């Protein structure tokens, strides 16, 4: 269910990160190699990136498969960035189909993506939604499980929690209410926070930077992240922290 990646590093083109790599995110939209749930990711795509001098990211999202949008190829070829989050979508049955459901979601300086699903969708939504203020529910960008997880995380960020603590807490909260797969990515353009919870996650070092992705491309050296792990990364370093089983099982 979906593939995604985040990058921090030396300035490079979106094409170099998303389209060019063999077995990279572009190819994973129709031929993922490590995806254990679903077969293709053709229900939309999105890219968010940061431009020099502006902390608020730009986004390009569509409800079509990434290979079906020739305009994206031109945008990707000429757009350069030092930080990026991109995703290709395999929609959870019963969720929204518009481009507003395609990651990345954004608020202020943050970009967010969710790879996985809430197994009890939409039945499991009630208990999770009840923890949100009504204004947050009304502000949901799309009718889908990923948008609910983003609302939970965004609320914690707004309340002053750091991204790593907020991500771990949201995964624990979601897992306590419903079985599911909760791999998330969030970045502010300077750091990346990710969780491996029920699906594959890897990180790779590039000259002057780092990539965290659902699955590796054919370039460079990649390391698999153990399941139930919180990842925090900067350009210079990647740190792994276990998400305790007890934390994910609490009610």
From TrEMBL:
**Which EC numbers does the record give?**
3.5.1.118
Species annotation: Streptodolium elevatio
Highest taxon of the lineage = Bacteria
Could you identify this protein by its name?
Gamma-glutamyl-hercynylcysteine sulfoxide hydrolase
> Reaction catalysed?
gamma-L-glutamyl-hercynylcysteine S-oxide + H2O = S-(hercyn-2-yl)-L-cysteine S-oxide + L-glutamate
InterPro entries reported for this sequence: EgtC, EgtC-like, EgtC_Actinobacteria, Gamma-glu_amide_hydrolase, GATase_2_dom, Ntn_hydrolases_N
User: Is the Nucleus keyword given for this protein?
Assistant: no
UniProt keyword annotations, A-Z: Glutamine amidotransferase, Hydrolase
